[in-house]
């Protein structure tokens, strides 16, 4: 499979991920505000709010990358989006699970998600610098 086909297919998957993540962001935010806020403590609600904040922000970034990749193929952006999506699942997901289950094992997953976020941002930076420097398509 060529890099162009792989990245184009991944752009579609990133759009799908953004749509699903955005849906769950709104649904879980509403559920947290209207249902969980009456049954969870302040710490648990803070974990959920932090998870939602990071999920919402990174969902928008992944959406922007997916749209950008429709116009400019870049393996750097491909891997950036993949790591940001993985970071969203691990970071925000572990905070939600921690708040709802109180299982302390989730505190070990959260930093892994954070590292995925950082790596995703670095790859996006490298991709942006390469585009500016070369102004060419990476196929």
Please render the helix and strand layout as text.
Layout: H1 3-34, H2 42-71, H3 75-101, H4 110-134
Family: Belongs to the UPF0382 family.
Main location: membrane
GO cellular component, one term: membrane
Gross morphology is: elongated
Structural class: mainly alpha
- Ranges where pLDDT stays below 50 over 5 or more residues in a row are none
Number of E strands: 0
Task: Look at the structure and give the mean pLDDT.
Answer: 90
Biggest sheet overview: none
Strand content: under 5%
The gist of it:
With 139 residues, this protein is an all-alpha fold. The protein has helices spanning 3-34, 42-71, 75-101, 110-134.
Index terms:
139 residues; 82% helix; elongated; membrane; transmembrane
Describe the 3D structure.
- This protein has 139 residues and is an all-alpha fold.
- It has one domain (3-134).
- Helices cover 82% and strands 0% of the residues.
- It is built from four helices and no strands.
- It has helices at residues 3-34, 42-71, 75-101, 110-134.
- The longest helix has 32 residues, at 3-34.
- It starts with a helix and ends in a 5-residue tail after the last helix.
- One of its GO terms (cellular component) is membrane.
């Amino acid at each position: 499979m060529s890099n162009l086909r792989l990245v184009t297919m991944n752009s579609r998957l990133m759009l799908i991920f953004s749509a699903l993540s955005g849906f769950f962001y709104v649904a879980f935010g509403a559920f947290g505000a209207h249902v969980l806020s009456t049954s969870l403590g302040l710490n648990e609600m803070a974990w959920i709010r932090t998870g939602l904040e990071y999920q919402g922000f990174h969902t928008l970034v992944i959406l922007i990358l997916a749209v950008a990749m429709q116009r400019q193929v870049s393996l750097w952006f491909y891997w950036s989006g993949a790591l940001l999506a993985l970071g969203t699942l691990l970071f925000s997901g572990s905070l939600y699970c921690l708040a709802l289950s109180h299982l302390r094992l989730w505190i070990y997953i959260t930093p892994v998600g954070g590292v995925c976020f950082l790596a995703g941002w670095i790859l996006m930076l490298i991709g942006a610098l390469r585009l500016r420097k070369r102004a060419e398509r990476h196929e």
